Amino acid sequence: MGPLEGVKVVELAGLGPAPFACMMLAELGADVLRIDRPGGSVSMGPPELDLVNRGRRSAALDLKQPAAVDVVRRLVAQADVLVEGFRPGVAERLGLGPADCHAINPRLVYGRMTGWGQDGPLAQAAGHDIDYLALSGALHLIGRADGPPQVPANLLGDFAGGSLYLVIGVLAALNEAQRSGRGQVVDAAIVDGSAHLTTMLLGALAAGSWRQERGTNLLDTGAPFYDVYETADGKHVAVGALEPQFYAELIGKLGLDAPDRNDPSQWPELRKVLAEAFRQRTQAEWTELFDGSDACVAPVLPLAGDHPHLVARGTFVDHHGVRQAAPAPRFDRTPTRLDRPPARPGEHTREALADWGITDIDGLLESGAAVQN
């Protein structure tokens, strides 16, 4: 059932990074109960395709009603973790802030997911992934020389700098609570996580081996042997032949007499040579040529691609009729698994609340404090 079997999580429903973090906790084996608004939240499609909500049940509670807030408090009394993604102060105004919850359950790990963090001049300001990346410096890194910063969808901020840092914090706090008997607040801010992700490059910047100018460095398309190239059919391949032995294999398989890669003044010419070479064949032909080699060349595939390696590992799966990524990482003794499909808000209100020991469900439903979809 996963390494977190037995861990109970209450999720106060939000958008983006907090749900993704709770999705991961559920796939790791935790029993996550999602508390939705009666009308649900905004999503990019119908609820059954909102994949970040997969793996857990949904109970709909109207937290504007004291009876609904009381239900959450009773859930908190049994939980190991609570996760919320509100703006700072909202949970406190609901009577569900850290002090309220720790008074009920001192062992509770209270996970908070925001863009700007719980304090600081921008704490109450609105923002999105792109804004947090911009302020952290991460967005400045991405793009070609003499061009504007490029937007990496919302993968780098929301999910890498946000969700994953929240999950790490929750797991660390759970581990510490086992020793101390005390919970604590995990303040996961996307701006902090995004800045933290740049650690290696900050060291390189201090050492003088990285420049602030985009597209002029080893790993940002400045080097022609670490870039993407168009193929004869208008598709692309990614080339990452950094080490000399890998670069030698690349040049050998391309059959080129290439300029000296160790002389940056020849990089523009080398880029032209490589670009011209890759335009001679289709992506599929290059994929076949480089298959299994150490030249570090890979086809740039669309979402949910069917490369044989991905198929062999089951990286993407069809679950309840929807193509999606399988849980990661993998465990040899307590494997993760896909469980429930995304729930409609309030789909499991009666069932889930009963399983968590809430007994006055009929009254809650009659008053509108709870809604069964």
Would you list the SSEs in sequence order as H and E? EHEEHEHHEHHEHHEEHHHEHEEHHE
- What coarse outline follows from CA principal-axis ratios? elongated
How are the strands of the biggest sheet laid out side by side?
6-5-4-1-2-3-12
- Alpha-carbon Rg, integer: 24 Å
Largest sheet: 7 strands, mixed
- Helix tally? 14
Fraction of helical residues: 25-40%
The low-pLDDT segments are none
Quaternary class? single chain
Secondary-structure-based class equals alpha/beta
Count of distinct strands: 12
The amount of beta strand, in percent, is: 5-15%
Intertermini distance: 27 Å
Mean pLDDT over the residues: 96
Structure characterization notes:
The chain has 373 residues and is α/β, with parallel strands linked by helices. 37% of the residues lie in helices and 14% in strands. It has 14 helices and twelve strands. It has helices at residues 17-27, 66-78, 90-94, 98-104, 129-136, 155-180, 190-196, 199-207, 244-254, 267-278, 283-290, 308-313, 349-355, 361-367; strands at residues 8-12, 31-36, 57-61, 81-84, 109-114, 185-189, 226-230, 236-240, 297-299, 316-319, 322-325, 370-371. The strands form three sheets. Strands 6-5-4-1-2-3-12 form a seven-stranded mixed beta sheet, sandwiched between helices. A three-stranded antiparallel beta sheet has the order 7-8-9, with helices on one face. The longest helix is centred in the middle third of the chain and has 26 residues, at 155-180. It comes from Kribbella pratensis. This is Alpha-methylacyl-CoA racemase. Pfam families: CoA_transf_3 (PF02515). Residues 324-347 are annotated as: Disordered.
